Every structure is written in structure tokens, then in C-alpha cells.
Amino acid sequence: xxxxxxxxxxxxxxxxxxxxxxxxxxxxxxxxxxxxxxxxxxxxxxxxxxxxxxxxxxxxxxxxxxxxxxxxxxxxxxxxxxxxxxxxxxxxxxxxxxxxxxxxxxxxxxxxxxxxxxxxxxxxxxxxxxxxxxxxxxxxxxxxxxxxxxxxxxxxxx
Length: 158
Prior knowledge:
Shape: elongated
Radius of gyration: 40 Å
Number of helices: 5
Number of strands: 2
Strand content: under 5%
Distance between the termini: 122 Å
Structural class: mainly alpha
């Protein structure tokens, strides 16, 4: 055999070895990628897990620290009447930001009955208005408190 034929035979062996190594590398890489996406593939003895979802019941009318959690209203006599009659149509925040006197609340309730289809509250209206006036009375202060005990000084116009 000539050197040239020996060299070609050697190159063919190296080429076949490289193809074999590349094939093994691709198969191993594919197996690793599959294992990364499905790690339980090799768990032959594991039993299938049964996941049971247990619904958690949350009490929407619970009171924490004297506050009705769902609405943020103060816990006092008449709270549930206010929740059931007022928060069906609007947020409780609308109630708490509009602090009024009994006359103001009665006028507002009458307006809602005439224009917003609020039902007749009957005897409950007095309980609701009493709750609102007691827990959310009008605030008489403005943007800031009036300045008191100020030591004024004279400006010299020269």
C-alpha cells in the first residue's frame, strides 16, 4: 500500500469516529434537554400524585379591629343595613367621603329614590341615617387649621 492509500484509510477512520462522536453528542444533548423539561421521566418507582384543591371560604362580612373588612365601614349598630342597602349600588367610599347631617342624608336618600331608583327604605331609613350621622359626621375644618398664637412683626417700608 502506498502512503497515500494509508493516509486516506486513516482519514476515513477519523471521519467515522468524529461522526460517531457527533451523533453521541447530539443524542446525549437531546436526552438532557428532554430531562430538563420532564425531570420525572426517569422516576420509574414514583406513584402519581393526586392534587386536591380545597376551596377556602372567606367570610365577606368579617370584622377586624372594629372595621368591616369588605367595605371599610365602622362596626356599629346599623352597619349591615348600610352595607346591604348602600353598597349594592355604589362603593362604601362614596358613603364615607360624603359626611352629612341627618337632614343632608335624608335629602340625599330622597334624591336617590326619585332619580336613581333607590327602593323605599321604610323604617330602616332612620337606622341607616343614625348610623351614618354617628360614625361619619360632617367635618367643619377646612384645608388647614386656623393659625393661632402667632408673634407678628412689623415690616419696615424704607
